[in-house]
Amino acid sequence: MKKYIIVQKYGGSSVANIARIKAVAKRVVAAKNSRNHVVVVVSALGDTTDDLEALAFNLSRTPPDREMDMLMSTGEQISCALLAIAVKEMGHDAISFTGPQVGIQTDKTHTRARIETISGHRIRKALAQDKIVIVAGYQGVTDEDEITTLGRGGSDLTAVALAQALKAKVCEIYTDVNGIYTADPRLVKEARKIKVITFDEMLEMASLGAQVMQARSIEVAKRFNISLHVRSSFSKEEGTMIVKKNEKLEDVAVRGVTCSKSDAKITICAVPDRTGIAAKIFTEISKVGVSVDTIVQNVSHTKQTDISFTVPKSSLPKALQAAKAAAREIHAGDVLYDKNIARISIVGSGMRSHHGIAARMFQALAENKINIEMIATSEISVSCIISQRHAEKAVRSLHEKFELEKVE
Length: 408
Ligand code: ADP
Ligand code: ASP
Ligand code: MG
Fold this sequence. Notes:
Layout: E1 4-10, H1 18-31, E2 36-42, H2 48-59, H3 65-72, H4 74-89, E3 94-97, E4 104-106, E5 115-118, H5 121-128, E6 132-136, E7 139-141, E8 147-149, H6 155-165, E9 170-175, E10 196-198, H7 199-207, H8 215-224, E11 228-232, E12 240-243, E13 256-260, E14 263-272, H9 277-287, E15 295-297, E16 304-312, H10 316-329, E17 335-338, E18 341-347, H11 357-367, E19 374-378, E20 381-387, H12 391-401
Parallel strand pairs: 1-2, 1-9, 2-6, 3-6, 9-11, 10-12
Antiparallel strand pairs: 4-5, 7-8, 11-12, 13-18, 14-16, 14-17, 15-16, 18-20, 19-20
Helix pairs in contact: 1-4, 6-8, 7-8, 9-10, 11-12
Bound molecules: adenosine-5'-diphosphate, aspartic acid and magnesium ion.
């Protein structure tokens, strides 16, 4: 009889200590039966990855990316071995592997490598021996045997990529909340669990700050149409299904509210209003490998204008240097920056057909005396850049404005 494969991923808080590792081991063993195989992906214990990163930054402000990958990938090696020990202690056969051992081949972009292929040969062999396979998330290896990591939250990507490579029947993402909520439940106590969400909406929410799923993992799930079940490792409750299409007849206008504090804003003042100036500035910034997000440029009536844009906070020093060089060259004015900004967004695929959604968002912010510094829209989202000190208030007021606490 051919058995089907279940992939389960457990996040850091689900394996934060020995008691939790034992609880996960029980769950994994319960999932395995005579009809299926179980492949488990684990994150590093609790805050291990943050702690490792902090250690490196104690030694250098700019630790080399290659060495960061050597360091950061160790967290998952610990958790996969411990889980295998726990499962074996329960009398079941298990084996742990690192990403490189199971042939997760990536490109050479250290700290945010992209998966190119997965051989999975050792996984298949271990499954054929009826073992529970436990794989260290978040890591891979280049064709030159260099260890890489897949970007923060990358264990989600490992799980989805393995589900695709192994043609798994089920891919479950176990975390510390009961599923995907209408807003971060830590921020908004009225937030409601969403039963079903589409890949497009989840991708937008993840890209705009809902850290519960890594955005890249959703991209892969969407490309290969791998449905995901996001649920809690602490309860048996059903979580959220992330799927291609929602069966509901009409899409809701706003599915969720997100908040991201990971960007900084740069403003180049008194930019001469001439053809080719924006091209010059953003070419300089792209040359240093920084990706720019929201850009605002006003039409000028005085032959000069300010240009503002956001970049990831981690790229701010590089981006500032490039912006200052470009500003000098084009005879612009000062270059200012602000690290204390937040991006507040509303997301929903029904926005394609509902109108007035952005206006309601701006009303909610105005009613709370929150100034909007920049605005960006996509087909299914509207984002506002505001001061970070208003972030929590903004998320709560938008949640209320769009009555998301009434989601059933
Ligand atoms: P894990 O360690 O399991 O990967 P993460 O910390 O990466 O877990 O993601 C889970 C956290 O994401 C939750 O604890 C929650 O605070 C946060 N979060 C942010 N937005 C949302 C949302 N819309 N729905 C659910 N959780 C969210
Ligand atoms: N441990 C890694 C991180 O904290 C990967 C993950 O948890 O998915 O980003
Ligand atoms: Mg995560």
